[in-house]
Amino acid sequence: MRRLPVFVFLLATLTACGQSSGAGGGEQCPAIALMEGISLDVPPEAAAGITRASMELCWAGRCVTESAELMPSSASRDQGCTGDVCSAQAVPTGGKYTSVPVQGLPVTPVKTTVTFDDGKPHVLDVTPVLTYPAGEKCGGGVPIAKLVVTPGGEVKQAP
Questions:
Q1: What is the largest CA-CA distance in the chain?
Q2: What does the DSSP 8-state code read for residue 36?
Q3: Which of 33, 65, 76, 82 is the most buried (most CB within 10 A)?
Q4: Rounded to an integer, what distance in angstroms lies between the CA atom of residue 118 and that of residue 53?
Q5: For residues 111 and 86, what is the distance between their CA atoms, to the nearest angstrom?
C-alpha cells in the first residue's frame, strides 16, 4: 500500500479565489488540512542500506505498529520565470522519507521504536507538536512529529 508522502493535503485554496472559510466574510483561510502522524526523513548520507522502516508508537496503554514504505526524497530546482510564469523541477536528493498517519496521536511523550532493514530497534520518546496548516487563527491543528536519521544512524526528533 502506498502512503501519501506529505503532511499537507491541499483540498482547495479558497483564498486564491477571494473566498473566505468563515461565515460573513471573516478571516481568509485556505481550505487545507494536516494529517496527524509522524514523518521520517533519511538524508542522503544516512540512506545507504535503508529500504524499509517500521514504527511502533505507544502511549496511554495503547500501541500502534505501522510498516512504512520509504520513498525517494526530492528537492525543487528553480527553472526561472518567463513573464508571470515561473517553474521548478523536482530533482532527487538521494535521501528517503515516509509519513505514517496515526489517529489519536497525543501532544504528550510517545514511546517510539523505529526499526530499519538491519532489525536494530531505535527507541526514543517523541513529543508531537500541535501544528496548524495555515496558522492558529485558521484552526485545524493536529499533532505532528518529525523524525530524522543522523549520519551516524541514530533516530532523533527534528525541531
A1: 58
A2: -
A3: 33
A4: 10
A5: 44
Let me know if 56 is exposed, middle or buried by CB neighbors in 10 A (0-12, 13-18, 19+): middle
Specify the CATH class of 36-129+138-157 in words: mainly beta
The CA distance from 5 to 96, in Å, is 10
DSSP-derived secondary structure letter, 137: G
Q: Which of 32, 30, 39, 31 is nearest to 4 (CA)?
A: 39
Query: What pairs with residue 91 in β-bridges?
Result: 75
The pLDDT tens digits of the residues spanning 128-150 come to 999 998 988 998 899 999 999 99
How far is it, in rounded angstroms, from Cα 145 to Cα 108? 11
User: Cα–Cα distance between 109 and 137 in angstroms, integer?
Assistant: 26
CA distances from 115 to 14, 56, 68, 135 (A): 41, 9, 10, 33
134 with 141: CB under 8 angstroms? Answer: no
| Domain ranges within the chain, ordered by starting residue | 36-129+138-157
